[in-house]
Task: structure prediction
Amino acid sequence: MSRRGRAIAFLLLALAAAGAAAAIAEGYGSSVSRSYGPLRPVVVVESALPAGTRLGAPQVGDALTVRRVPERFVPPGSLAVPEEATGMTAAAALPAGSYLQAALLRPPGRPGNSRSRLGRGRAPVEIAVSGSEALLVDGARPTGAKMDVIVTSEPAGAGVGRTYVAARMVPLLSLRPGAEGAEPEGASVATLGLTHGQALRLIAAESFARRVTLLPAGTR
Result:
């Protein structure tokens, strides 16, 4: 075979390999989409921001980024565009690697009186919870009561998910229906008085847990 013929043959082989690689990648992407839902953009905190940080244009540009994540793993109320946070203030500490949810932001200058009423070291944090309808049976008004926050994790392989108490005796400040179409379906939004450590655990649980549930403290 001539040199020109060998060059053409190598070119054809390279094109065939590239086509095969593209087909494999497309097939993998389709498999992920079928298993966990379509990919959607979500804002991720790249650099940790302390509570009270005002998100001006420099902070938004330096500390926030966008990633495409399977819809199943996107917490309710997550921002899709970093610019949506411009001018807002971090209502709680925003750890690096966390998804940025609207519940973690507040308009600048919003009164923070509830912090002092909650006691030293606690702040109001919004968490998506399931099964909260049970707290309202017979006209009950759970606001102001102490709650245990129960997390049920996703099962590992063929096993069952683990259920554990992620935060004990936390005050429930408010409870309202979640946004229409929010995931998980039927979730409510609870505002809880949490310590810094409790807030980090529960914000993380919103990303990986199957359910986050409230149980009146002391219930056995």
Notes: Confidence is low (pLDDT under 50) at residues 110-114. The first strand starts at residue 39 and ends at 45.
